[in-house]
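Lab notebook, bench 4. We co-purified these components, and the gel suggests they stay together. Before we commit to crystallization screens, I want a quick structural picture of the whole thing.
Request: model the full complex, all chains together.
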Amino acid sequence: MIPVRCFTCGKVIGDKWEAFKKRVSEGEETKKVLDDLSIERYCCRRIFISHVEVMEELLKYVKNSKNTKNMIT
Amino acid sequence: MKITILEQNGNSLRFVLSGVSAPFANAIRRIIMAEVPTMAIDDVMMFENTSAMFDEMITHRLGLVPLTTDLDTYLLPEECDCESEFGCNNCRVSFTLDVKAEAELKMVYSGDLIPENADVSPAVKKIPIVRLANNQRLKLEAYARLGKGLEHAKWQPVSASTYKFMPIVEIDTKKCDGCGDCVKYCPKNVFSIEKLKPVVQNEINCTLCMECIRHCPIEPSPIKISHDKKTFIFYIESTGSMPASKLVKEAVKILERKTQSVIEQYKKVK
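Here is the predicted assembly.
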């Protein structure tokens, strides 16, 4: 999951992640998207550039059945 | 003392404070960062968490969500007379959250927190908290309270609270040969060329980096850079809990209260 705030300066960045991911995957230039979302400082920018969504990978292993609950608790 | 607002948009504020000393400007800057109280979630009761994330991690993420703060109705727990460990209606706000993913993946957002008092609600609604797979559920009750940035960064109302001296950039046009190197090398576009000679265009943007002087071929350089020690350019960026202008007002109030207590202590000693 994307951090809620920038580790260094404390700016709220979590809410901008989905827009960033969508626009970059559609082929827009990373620099332009970050400028558009008004992420100015390099401390916040590096989080976006280097972030890997591990949660998506984890959720692949949750079975599509009613036993899900027992499996993961 | 004089304040001129340069720019105010959304959560950020840029203003010039003139006629004060550096320690005074720094006191305001530090009080904004560390001592203006803000609301943040501090206690969480977890009823059901079948998500892939640990309770502690979810709680930590919830704590970092900025909440709109009403300083008139709520008191700091240490100043509240309830003296209860769990707080009372004057020093605590509760939130509930109950999200269940039925058949498909579902994202839990900060906006899913339902406040007991609508005046205190998540300032940013679209912060992802955790992603739920089918049949996973997150149910909890969260308690927010006022706190100070001194205690934990989640109570810090700003993500940037900075100031710099007012720069003074001067060019001796008699000595300048108009090569234009200062225009080319200045990272902040302070200079521009007019009638084959550089002129100072955006003096306020200068960061006193001296790059123009370093690249100037004339020795000694006709450019002179100095700063006004009594004028400060402030930049304040709020997290959304309060407008930046209100933060400055609150900080000044706190500073006044502090100096007042020093005067009172002094009178006692006398």
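Residues 2-34+160-235 of chain B form a domain with the Gyrase A; domain 2 fold (CATH 3.30.1360.10). Worth comparing against the SEC data before the next meeting. The longest strand of chain B covers residues 223-238.
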